[in-house]
Amino acid sequence: PQKMQWHYSSKRGKVRSRTNALKDIYWRMNNMQAAKSGILYYVIGYPASGKTTALGSAITARVATEHTKPFKHIDYEDGTVQIGARRTQFGGTDALPFNVQPKVLKWLPEAEASVIVGEGDRLCNNKFFNAVVEMGMPLKIVHIEVPELIARYRAWARRYELNESWLKSRRTKVDRVVRTWQNYVTRIDGRRDACAVANDLRHCIYG
To answer: How far apart (Å, rounded) are the C-alpha atoms in residues 144 and 176?
Structure first.
């Protein structure tokens, strides 16, 4: 949370500082109220850990509507909303532009969904998760955990042509997020077959 900082150089400056702080509190309270209806489940993992496959199988409801504004997202018939697009390679939030994060954060408090799901590298960062928590939206991060060698083999088997330095940076990023947000993280053993991983993810999201 942002700290109030008083400026004693003048009475006017102090009033201005207090006004800005109150505006910030008012904004946060409005967002908290708006975000209470839904919970965000965000699936993370190394590249080729099986995030897209698992989430695609975990959601069993039929697609109701696919939206393109304010960014790509999907409404399902059971009320679930998925951020991003469904596709085999580079699906989920990785189908969205690099600058999509502010649009998603603006949209989240207005989303009329009890379950919002996302997966992928695009929104897997501390700034995004901090903003979600600060607006009062419940957050659960699901880590599909696989050893590096298994992730490498799966990438090779799928004939992904990924830059080695990029792969290393994504693994480091995931490890950092898991450490920072450990109280929000649920771990799923991604070494098993895709059906078992999807079942665990389905149970995590829907109970």
So the answer is: 14
